[in-house]
Design goal:
Purple Acid Phosphatase, chain A, domain 2; 8-stranded mixed sheet; 521 residues; 7-stranded mixed sheet
Amino acid sequence: MKFVSDPAISIKIQKMKQRVRWQEASIAERGIDQTRFVLDDNQPDNPEFSFMVIGDSGSGGNRGYHPQRRIAEQMLMHREDCRFVLHTGDVIYLVGSNEYYFKNFIEPYREFLVGGDRPNRIPYDKMTFNLPILPVLGNHDYYDLSLLYSLIAPAITPLRRLLQFQLNLDIGSRGSNQGKAYAKAFLDYLQDFNASELAQHLDQHYTAKTDSGRCLRYEPGQFTRLPNRYYTFRLGGIDFFALDSNTFNSPLPLPTTPEGDDRRRQLKQRLDELEEQDDKILATVPQQSDAIDDAEHADDLKTRITQTQEMKLDVQKQLSTDDTNTIDVEQLEWLQQKLIESWHTEGVRGRVLYFHHPPYVTETTKWDQGQTIAIRHRLRQVLDGVAQAVGSKAADRPLVDLVLNGHAHCLEHLRTVDTGHGDANINWLICGGSGYSLRRQRIEGPDLLEGGQDGEGQSRVVARSQLFVGRNGQGSQKRRPYSFLRIDVQDGRPPRFTIRPYITERFQGQWTNKKIEPFII
């Protein structure tokens, strides 16, 4: 059964542009940069500051225990010390629907919202943050219901009872509307304004001035909207770049060669295997009359179902991709140009990227996915262009100081070696274990190899995992360590980052906070 569908990249781009009235005349004539904001929180621009990172959190509660809320409570201890929270995507599971924003976002993070003492009175499209939560779109924030499921969802069918009541997948009766729910929740949704309202709004909220022109002023407690689905901001001499990786993750086209034909046959066989696996999983779920008393058993089933759905979508994308597929060239060119400008700006001492899909990862399902390969390939192209433009100015520094991702339901620190590209010697942090069902590390271990049988030339290590925190153990010994990060930015050029992982583990029905020693990168 296919529960979800993913809109075409061209649709995602088109709809999101319409929602922010991308580069319309009234915006362009004011010299407004719609990809930048200034954080106006009445604090000095100190080179030493802290922020938190969460990701893949939007799950609500799990039949008697609530990992997302548990993480939020741990975050509260750092609220006064941190300037903002970065969210690496998948804000709402399973299909980014507005009907789940209260349960899966507003209620768990209520202390971070104005009026959070009465969270049920906060409309999802009127949220104002007292501590900025700055997200990027995850794949689930774009998902819609498949056509078949959308037809049967309004009726109370046995399948819907099985999924919604027994496993609490939070599918509901509608999807994200091609990302509209996320846009209404977090972006400065300009599409609803008439001409006079738009002019007044722009003159009220786009008053910050930077080297790229006017831009949006983000004011915690008053006005907390983001200008676009991808954006940048600067704090303490660090440039942050938030990307929408959902619009450049289309798998690379398979070649029209005998090798390409063999790969297509393998993918079709793999899709049949996943369909069979899906049927077997669903067959193990009790009927409505047989309650799943063990909440953690229900979580295991939910993990298996959503994992096979994700893997099927990736295989389907690989089989349907050809040379006509749209890629978000505009965003990639924007990133390359902004990174080059950043390297040539005197006051900037470091750069941080954050987006949903990780180019490097050792979680069990991700490394060989077509989307992972595509993201890595396209990011390398961007960074190779930056390296060429920056030249010796970078000296022996990596082009980016830190990359933050989600998508993989774990906490992981990786470091690339000399890849032969602009992504060499970079630290990568995956923070995707902040609430939703956790995943394991792959059995192949911490070294990531490219080339060899499935690539060109001899197989070689391109990255190594330094730390992996995810689901582990079997049966009664199974452990579920949920996580978030606090990152302390230090003064200096290049900057140093103290990474402080915070783990709260569910084991045998009990919660325990685990300590992992901070490390500096």
